[in-house]
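User: Quick sanity check before I run a bigger batch. Here is a single chain. Can you write out its predicted 3D structure?
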Amino acid sequence: MALHSEPPFAHGSLLKAGVLLVNLGTPEAPTPAALKVYLRQFLSDRRVVELPRPIWWLILNLFVLTRRPKDSAARYAQIWTKEGSPLKVHTERQAKLLQGYLGVTVKSPYVVDYAMRYGTPSIPEVLQRLKAQTCDRIVVLPLYPQYSASSTGTVFDAVFDELKRMRNAPAVRTVKHFHDDPRYIAAVVQSIRDDWMRNGRPDVLVMSFHGLPRFSLDRGDPYHCECQKTGRLVAEGLGLKPHEYRVTFQSRFGRAEWLKPYTADTLRELGAARSGRVDVVCPGFTSDCLETLEEIAIEGKAEFLKAGGGEFHYIPCLNDRDDWLHALSGIAADQLGGWVSTTFDRPQAEREAGKARARALELGAKG
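Assistant: Done. Predicted structure follows.
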């Protein structure tokens, strides 16, 4: 494996800390061709699909990629915006806003950027971009509140695979999860309260999380437990009684058993029970995306109403809410401890950098 060439470096440059937000990813367009590229990358990840490679290669190429891109493209078309994919739009906004929120306390040089695990901008591309901006310390912050091997774990794979190709690798800190961080929980609770202030309260609140195959729990993945804890803490923050909320799992794929109860089944059951109103919130997603805007707000609503339910209401993700950005800033700042300063003296730092450059040139440095 050949090492990358290092970006141009000028002695005496002010070194920076970097914060890299990472989300799942999105196709480039709501078209079958774009979905085929995206799904091939996503579903080829060994952490996402744990079947033996020869078997899965045949299934993926002979069946999944010949049928699913067209169906997925139609679903994406329903939620696509003039700015593009909602997930990418919200993630980009979060990165830009976080740059400003951190600046309230952090005075030394830093950079915030974002990448997608699948699609663009890629993790290797953005890590190289951060290095080119003289970031020699980077916090990797996956935007998944709950850890799973197939989400956060695969982000870490991509980051460290790229570090192996770097001659001068930066120091890296990672955020494993924030499923029970009081700041994140408070932001979720307040987003629900704000929605209820505008629209009234439901009979039942469904907290829907992305699903995983059941065997992931049996093999030690903490995701199920972390989702349950998030649900319990949010319910406690809202003062809900056990019969007033449900924790469920969505996005089931294939025939294997997945984490239960399934969101779709729960919505049909609540509809059949003639529930007057059900609200659904998705605390496993920090940005609205296909799984929230189409699978829940469109498909989930249709299932509930078809089964006989009264009123269905979807509560948006945190997206670019002020309380969420404050929470995200705090989570990032925790990991930046010792790497950044709240009392940075730029003129002094630039004088010291100038002296360092002069000494390097005296010793024969070229830049």
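The chain has a mean pLDDT of 95.

User: Great, the batch can go ahead then.
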